[in-house]
Design brief:
The protein is mainly β and 135 residues long. The chain has one domain: Metal Binding Protein, Guanine Nucleotide Exchange Factor, Chain A. Helices cover 5% and strands 40% of the residues. The protein has one helix and eleven strands. The strands form two sheets. It has an eight-stranded mixed β-sheet with strand order 6-7-8-9-4-3-10-11. A hairpin with a 6-residue loop joins strand 1 and strand 2. The radius of gyration is 14 Å and the shape is globular. The N and C termini lie far apart (31 Å). The model has no long low-confidence stretch (mean pLDDT 94).
């Protein structure tokens, strides 16, 4: 299988991340922190294995999850777009905002976490596995 590269970027293009290969997984998060972070009713994220290449400057925001894990979110200091995040202490993968790829053919999510906080009018794609909180 040929090595596939994909690039995600912020709205102004200043902050970019290039990932390789197919996503490890694509999911939705309905937690209240992600709702506030994105300004939407959920976050759509794709996880990729390292290595990945970042270009541009990022502002960082450290957030603790419900189970104590810490996540470092990177967003563009110019336009404010959240582009990617990593878990502190885990350099083996990166999670990238699906919308930052600007690719309508991007694979659909297969999991939904914090489904207990999903807005009732949001419909999940068929076959999506839903978790009440974070598994």
């Amino acid at each position: 299988m040929p090595d596939h590269h994909a690039t995600a970027s912020c709205s102004c293009g200043q902050l970019r991340i290039e990932v390789r290969g197919a996503p490890r997984g694509v999911g939705l998060c309905h937690c209240l922190a992600c709702q506030r972070r994105t300004g939407s009713v959920f976050a759509a994220l794709a996880s990729f294995n390292a290595p990945y290449q970042v270009s541009g400057q990022a502002t960082e925001y450290l957030r603790s999850g419900d189970q104590g894990a810490q996540f470092l979110f990177r967003f563009c200091p110019v336009c404010g777009t959240t582009v990617y995040h990593t878990e502190v202490g885990d350099d083996s993968r990166v999670s990238v905002a699906v919308g930052a790829f600007a690719d309508p053919t991007f694979p659909a999510p297969t999991v939904s976490v914090y489904d207990s906080r999903r807005h009732p009018w949001v419909q999940l794609p068929p076959g999506t596995r839903a978790y009440h909180t974070d598994p």
